[in-house]
Every structure is written in structure tokens, then in C-alpha cells.
Design a protein that fits this description.
Helix 2 packs parallel to helix 3, helix 7 crosses helix 10 and helix 8 packs across helix 9. With about 240 residues, the chain is of the alpha/beta class.
Amino acid sequence: MTSELQAPPSPDHRIRVLLVEDDRPIRERMSAILRAADRLELVAAAATLAEARALCAAHVPAVLVTDLKLPDGNGLELIHETRRLYPAMEIMVVSVLGDERSVLTAIEAGAAGYILKDSAAIDLVGSVLDLVAGRSPISTSIARTIVRRVQNRPDAPSGAPSAAPPSVPVPALTERETDILWGVAKGLTYSDIAERLGISRNTVLTHVKNIYRKLEVNSRGEAVFAAINHNIIDLKG
């Protein structure tokens, strides 16, 4: 089994963050916000895909905050590579792109959070902390896009629930795994889920690993997306 590359702990246990943003004024503003946060440590800020790759390898941060539109490529490439090389690293997109294709592709690639730059008030620090705590920070308009996409899929009969294509087998999760996945989709931390279900946090983590294996995913965002597509969980419940 390939061992996960873990981010080295900071001496003061702050959360190490790498920022990728090509627009200089925005990059400087976001960098200042991250540097000012007591619990975060901005290890580097990159302006290009090439810089981001080199800095990821050099610093192996705990959190990657990246834009999608970069001058020498697409942030999706970075997300794919990061998810493969550093499975433990959390990934959040901060972008002006809020269309369905961009959002869903980023989540499928491995991003667990997606925030729009034009949000009325971007709580960048809060979003990073939520990400590390096991939640999936997503702008409200994006969450609505995902819900509409699932509820009103063009190939689904009117009034009928969306279902995975007949050719795609639905992964068999246990009742406990389904309960845990529902909690993850609702944004609960692993500790919250453990308390609600009366089990230990380590037991929750074991179930999460089994869920990832069965759904063939590598992140919370991917797991929730797959579960919605297969009608394994109901977010309205």
C-alpha cells in the first residue's frame, strides 16, 4: 500500500497553507489575510501552475487553496496531481468560475471546498479551518447548483428521483457507513459524527476509509458527490 505523504507539523502546530492565485492584487490580499490568522501559516504563494507544483513538493502543506484559471494551465491539473501525490492534503478552490461544469469537475478531481471570489464576504480563514475540521466549505450559490443538478437531471423523469445509470453498479455500503457518509455530507466533523453515533472517532475514520474504498474516491468531496449520484444519501433528510 502506498503511504500517504503527510504535511510536516509546524513548530507551533499552525495549519500550513499554500496559496495559488495568478492575479497579483488578489494574491497579495489573500496572502495578507492568511498571514494574519493565528492558527494558519502561509508557507508560500504561487502565481502559476509550475510554481505551485514546485512549492507543493518543497513544503507539502496541509491545505492547498487554488484558483482554476492559471496562466500556464488549469488548476484542475494541480488538484488531480495533489490528490494522487499527497492524499492527506486538503484542497479548496477559490475562483470566479461558478458554473456547474467547473464546480463538479473540481469536486470530482478531489477538492473538498469551493468558494466564489465574488461572494459578498469571503471568510477565507474560516473556510480553511472548516476544511481542516472535516467540513466542506461551499458557497451557497454553488451548493444550490449541485442540488439542482441532482434533483433536476435532464435524463431523469419529471418528479422522479435521480438515479445512477443502470450500467453503473451502486456501491454497497453498510447502514453505519451510510449514516457516517450522511454526516460528512451535512458538514459534521468526524468527532461530531462519533458523538452522534456513540462510537469512537477512530472507528469513524475506519468507516470513512472503507467508504472511500467502496466508492473508489480519495476525498470527502468526491465521496459526497458519488453518494448523491448513486442516491445513497438524501441531503434533504
